[in-house]
Design brief:
By secondary structure, this protein is of the alpha/beta class. It has helices at 5-14, 29-38, 50-58, 65-74, 112-124, 141-152, 191-204, 214-244, 249-256, 280-290, 296-322, 350-360; strands at 19-23, 42-46, 80-83, 94-97, 102-103, 109-110, 130-133, 162-165, 184-188, 208-211, 331-335, 364-368, 374-377, 380-383, 395-398, 415-418. An 8-stranded mixed beta sheet has the order 3-2-1-4-7-8-9-10, sandwiched between helices. The longest helix is centred in the middle third of the chain and has 31 residues, at 214-244. The radius of gyration is 24 Å and the shape is globular. Residues 333-425 form the UDP-glucose/GDP-mannose dehydrogenase C-terminal domain.
Length: 430
């Protein structure tokens, strides 16, 4: 007789969850570890970088305020341990893999860190453990990196060890949709795997949406961020169309969003960055190429997103031209370089591409971002302007506005190009 998830709930409840190892203590792993610890579970945080662990201990990490308060308490408690020793994962009742999954220079999946982490996990796995893959990847990753190696070692998945996929849904800097308030998708290899994994994920959030398999959970995450990518590309395109008609695109979006059904507001901007939208759809496209399938809408959306920084630079050039100026020698200040407000993260930020493109056209570039003292661009390291004077610049290009900081000095700048389309309403806000 086939057992159901409900029948395995009792099994999960009888297996007390005393400790969880979290592999990778980055922007996903650290908040996950803090959430588990706050839920009464002992945590073993594992990261290859001793510098990263030292930064965590000192509190010099990018977290929302509530997680900073959790960290201040956790680092002084015995049941919150940080280590570079991967063998420690063998001590835990459950292990969550939270390492980054990026792209190489050819937009191909770079699974090096994930493959290494899973190989270590297989090496130290023991009977009774629950292993959960939270890193975003292509369909079949959990099967390839966890299930097959475990079977090869003689484990019976779903009987003496449990495997599931529950892709992370952490939005760095977002205090509205916290980890505890955001439902998680979870797919286990067997009903027993789902039940055993759910007892872990329920520590992080009470809302768990169980699906039939790890593959379904993996595809769900790819669909989520591909949906966002396609709609952001559409919003950017409508912004260009609206400009051509001398219409405010934000007014159009706000008006469309008054419809209580069938519309979801996405806003145009200078480009996308971070760990998800520029990356995740390419995992899907890469896998489709292997099966000689195609997704023309997704392909075109990702191309449009990649081209967005060039469109922003072209907008700056057109603005200068209307004033009888050229790009060569123009003093241009990029305002904000993080990929989104409220974080210190510049990974894949379109601001870096914009700085490079402006410099390549002969502009004298600088940037202001109170959260980022310096960045690395094609020409090398570039230090931020600590206290800019609007009168020193021909153009101020608004890329990212950091909350809690004053931008009154922009009133002294002759020309402001707002690539966010939303800055003018809060010009003098603190």
């Amino acid at each position: 007789m086939t057992s159901t998830v409900a029948e395995y709930q009792t099994v999960a409840e009888l297996n007390k969850l005393a400790s969880v190892a979290v592999i990778g203590m980055g922007y996903v792993g650290l908040p996950t570890a803090l959430g588990l610890h706050a839920g009464g579970v002992g945590v073993i945080g594992i990261d290859l970088s001793q510098n990263r662990l030292d930064s965590i201990r000192s509190g010099e990490v990018d977290l929302i305020e509530s997680d900073h308060r959790r960290l201040e308490k956790a680092v002084h408690q015995e049941d919150f341990q940080l280590t570079t020793d991967s063998a420690r994962m063998g001590e835990a009742d459950a292990v969550l893999v939270c390492v980054p999954t990026g792209l190489d220079e050819y937009l191909m999946p770079d699974l090096g860190p994930l493959e290494s982490a899973c190989a270590e996990l297989i090496a130290h796995a023991r009977a009774g453990q629950t292993l959960i893959l939270t890193s975003t990847s292509y369909v079949g990753t959990a099967e390839r990196l966890l299930v097959k190696p475990l079977l090869a070692k003689g484990f019976k998945v779903g009987r003496d060890i449990f495997v599931a996929s529950s892709p992370e849904r952490i939005d760095p800097g977002n205090v509205t949709h916290t980890q505890a308030e955001t439902p998680r998708v979870l797919g286990g290899v067997t009903p027993a795997c789902t039940a055993m994994a759910q007892r872990v994920i329920n520590v992080l959030t009470p809302a768990v949406h169980c699906v039939s398999s790890p593959e379904t959970a993996e595809m769900t995450k790819l669909f989520e961020n591909t949906f966002r990518a396609v709609n952001i590309a559409l919003a950017n395109e409508f912004a260009e169309i609206s400009d051509g008609f001398a219409i405010d695109p934000i007014e159009v979006i706000d008006a469309a969003a008054s419809k209580p059904y069938g519309f979801m507001a996405f806003h145009p901007g200078p480009g996308v960055g971070g760990h998800c939208i520029p990356c995740d759809p390419h995992y899907l496209l890469w896998q489709l190429r292997a099966t000689q399938s195609n997704a023309p809408l997704v392909t075109q959306a990702m191309h449009a997103i990649a081209e967005r920084p060039k469109q922003v630079v072209e907008r700056v050039l057109n603005t200068l031209s209307r004033d009888g100026k050229g790009m060569a020698g123009a003093r241009i200040l990029v305002v904000g370089v993080t990929y989104k407000p409220g974080v210190q993260d510049v990974r894949s930020s379109s601001a870096l591409d914009i700085l490079d493109l402006l410099a390549a056209k002969g502009a004298k570039v600088g940037y202001y971002d109170p959260l980022v003292p310096n960045v690395r661009v094609t020409g090398g390291a570039l230090d931020g302007i600590a206290e800019p004077d609007g009168g020193d610049w021909d153009v101020a290009l608004i890329h990212t506005i950091q909350p809690g900081h004053s931008y009154e000095w922009l009133a002294d700048c002759d020309t402001v190009v707002d690539a966010t389309y939303r800055f003018d309403r809060a010009l003098f806000a603190n």
